[in-house]
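User: Could you write out the 3D structure of this protein bound to adenosine-5'-triphosphate? I've included everything you need below.
Assistant: Certainly. Input first, then the structure.
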Amino acid sequence: MSLLETSGLQAFYGDAQALFGIDFGLDAGEVIAIIGANGAGKSTFLKSLTGLVKAPRDAISFNGQPIGGLPPGDIVRRGIALVPEGRRLFPSLTVEENLLMGTNAKRPGPWNLQRLYAMFPILTQKRHEPAPALSGGQQQMVAIGRALMSNPAVLLCDELSLGLAPIVIREIYAALPAITAEGMTVVIVEQDVATAQQVSQRIYCFQEGRVSLHGDSAELTREQISAAYFGL
Ligand code: ATP
């Protein structure tokens, strides 16, 4: 049994259907990348997993329990945390206050302020600054940190690279080994296929709300991925 599983997951915005039966499985300790073009449904999938988009109870299971459609707070307390697309920091709060928001889940675990500041030293200097005063890359570090502060079993990251310069993207991804070192299970939505293949063990490609390809990251060929990504 997978740690986190979806079976025939559908999602709607009003009458518009965004996901058409997603079958997905994630084992403890894996790093999975989800790739796909704009509008393929990647964000909707992560939002469904975290209760931000409604899902039927039995379509999602975590640790063997059905969790589809539970309130987002319940899902965080069970151990699934989201780094949302566009960071979504609280603009009126300082860096440290944003990080501490993650502790509302009251889950025990290895992540705390000290540990985060060791991973992203620049945040130590900026801890009392308002979040909007930081650069995009630094804000992304705060968004990752806020999610880690809930000590999740599964960390879901939506487009960490969005709007960031290549050098900053490398800096963000350089933190991944420290995050996975203790067996954190990670799902990363990433538009850049090369990055997705480098950082993950398995890839799911989404196209128009469906899984168009899935397999081992090291084994999928560029041709297979192009066909699944663009529907060629
Ligand atoms: P992107 O890389 O652009 O974020 P994505 O793969 O994450 O793309 P989604 O954002 O999940 O795709 O969008 C999937 C579909 O759902 C698209 O057709 C999109 O237009 C639609 N959609 C997304 N959010 C909403 C919303 N709040 N209301 C209505 N439709 C939406």
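The pocket of adenosine-5'-triphosphate is lined by residues 13, 16, 18, 36, 38-44, 85 (CB under 6 Å).
User: Perfect, thank you.
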